[in-house]
């Protein structure tokens, strides 16, 4: 098959393309590289700023590129906002892709209308980025996302594409739970792809060495993602056990340096409000780091995993994070076993070639082809 992957989040599409090529398919990734992360792509569409003139130049580049985005058997969009353009402009581009290609699929991989709407208006999740049970979270970031995706042109675009497209693959349990009630016949769950062959497993932790906890800080998103709470709990543990643990903190560092800092660590703290590990956590687990984050029962159920439990699941509050970290510090004999299980977990469920085949099967057998 000839496959166009349009847009990028956390290297999902490039890694999927690697798996598809291993299976003998043609795959082309068109993206901005996920901004500062600058992931690989075949066709680069980067908007330098949100300024007017950069917007005009970017639109011109998109329009000039469109003839190269024809004739594919499958087009997959990373998000309803798959280019750095206002939602109003994306209708025409989506319809162009629809007319000049085979099937078109919408990825359920991140922030969009169905995610925000479900978290804000239902009790689907015990907790999420937007709610604790019936209590709605409130912060500047959350208010921004609500304004962006609810009763907006983005929300209308999302609903238009979701209703029109041929299928909706989702990458986390949470996103599946948001889309499936609305589109049960054309929503599926496929695990995120990780190129496990490119990841060298870390050396076993030497006995007696302090446990190294890695945490990445994005100040602009710290409260929204719960990093502020995780960091406070980690600092408390370090204060209580200064000789038994270390904090490796990456804040606004280049991606290569970020990876180097991660590689020297034993455990990673990531995504307090998540039920499931996403790309950053899975990458770390593939290297043998222990994830302290989302590992709820729903995560294991959706992948039919009945044996491995490598994730140290935490509830979204400081005391539970502190308790789970303290238990790891007090029982360091668990670390090497959890490290081995973490890599095995990724090998078993997220190998990029196996995942690519699941996508091919879904694309091939999707009954939704609207003429």
- What gap, in angstroms, lies between the N and C termini? 20 Å
Radius of gyration: 21 Å
- Count of individual helical segments: 15
Relative helix content: 40-55%
The class by helix and strand makeup works out as alpha/beta
Q: What do we call the CATH homologous superfamily of the largest domain?
A: Glycogen Phosphorylase B
* Largest sheet geometry: 5 strands, parallel
Secondary structure blueprint with pairings:
Blueprint: E1 2-6, H1 12-22, E2 26-31, E3 43-44, H2 52-65, E4 74-77, H3 87-99, E5 103-106, H4 113-121, E6 131-132, E7 135-136, H5 140-149, H6 153-164, E8 168-170, H7 173-179, E9 187-189, E10 211-217, H8 222-225, H9 227-240, E11 245-251, H10 255-263, E12 267-269, H11 279-286, E13 290-293, H12 297-302, E14 312-313, H13 318-330, H14 335-350, H15 352-365
Helix pairs in contact: 1-15, 3-6, 4-7, 9-13, 11-14
What does this structure look like?
There is one protein chain. The protein is an alpha/beta fold and 371 residues long. The chain has two domains: 2-193 and 352-365, Rossmann fold; 196-350, 3-Layer(aba) Sandwich (Rossmann fold). It contains 15 helices and 14 strands. The chain has a five-stranded parallel sheet with strand order 3-2-1-4-5, covered by helices on one side. It has a five-stranded parallel sheet with strand order 11-10-12-13-14, sandwiched between helices. The protein has a two-stranded antiparallel sheet with strand order 6-7. Helix 1 (12-22) links the parallel strand 1 and strand 2. Helix 1 crosses helix 15 and helix 11 (279-286) packs across helix 14 (335-350). The protein is globular and about 60 Å long. It starts with a strand and ends in a 6-residue tail after the last helix.
């Amino acid at each position: 098959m000839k496959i166009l992957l349009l847009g990028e989040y956390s290297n999902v599409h490039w890694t999927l393309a690697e798996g598809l090529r291993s299976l003998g398919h043609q795959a082309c990734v068109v993206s901005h590289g996920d901004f500062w992360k600058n992931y690989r792509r075949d066709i680069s569409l980067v908007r330098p700023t949100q300024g007017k003139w950069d917007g005009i130049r970017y639109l011109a580049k998109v329009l000039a590129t469109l003839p190269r985005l024809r004739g594919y058997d499958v087009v997959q969009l990373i998000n309803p906002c798959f280019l750095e353009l206002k939602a109003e402009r994306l209708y025409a581009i989506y319809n162009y892709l629809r007319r000049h290609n085979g099937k078109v699929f919408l990825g359920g991989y991140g922030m969009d209308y169905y995610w925000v709407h479900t978290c804000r208006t239902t009790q689907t999740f015990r907790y999420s980025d937007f709610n604790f049970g019936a209590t709605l979270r409130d912060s500047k970031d959350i208010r921004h996302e609500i304004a962006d995706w609810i009763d907006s042109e983005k929300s209308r675009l999302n609903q238009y594409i979701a209703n029109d497209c041929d299928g909706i693959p989702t990458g986390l349990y949470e996103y599946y739970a948001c889309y499936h009630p609305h589109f049960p016949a054309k929503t599926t769950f496929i695990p995120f792809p990780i190129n496990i062959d490119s990841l060298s497993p870390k050396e076993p932790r030497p006995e007696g060495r302090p446990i190294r906890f890695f945490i990445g800080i994005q100040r602009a998103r710290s409260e929204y993602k719960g990093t502020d709470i995780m960091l406070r709990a980690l600092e408390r543990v370090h204060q209580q056990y200064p000789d038994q643990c270390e904090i490796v903190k990456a804040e606004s560092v280049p991606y290569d340096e970020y990876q180097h800092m991660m590689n020297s660590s034993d455990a990673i703290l990531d995504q307090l409000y998540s039920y499931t590990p996403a790309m950053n956590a899975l990458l770390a687990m593939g290297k043998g780091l222990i994830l302290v984050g989302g590992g709820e029962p729903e995560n294991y159920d959706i992948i039919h995993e009945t044996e491995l439990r490598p994730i140290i699941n935490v509830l979204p509050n400081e005391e539970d994070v502190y308790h789970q970290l303290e238990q790891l510090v007090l029982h360091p004999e668990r670390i090497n076993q959890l490290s081995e299980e973490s890599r095995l977990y990724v090998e078993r469920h997220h190998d990029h070639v196996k995942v690519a085949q699941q996508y091919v099967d879904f694309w091939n057998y999707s009954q939704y082809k609207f003429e």
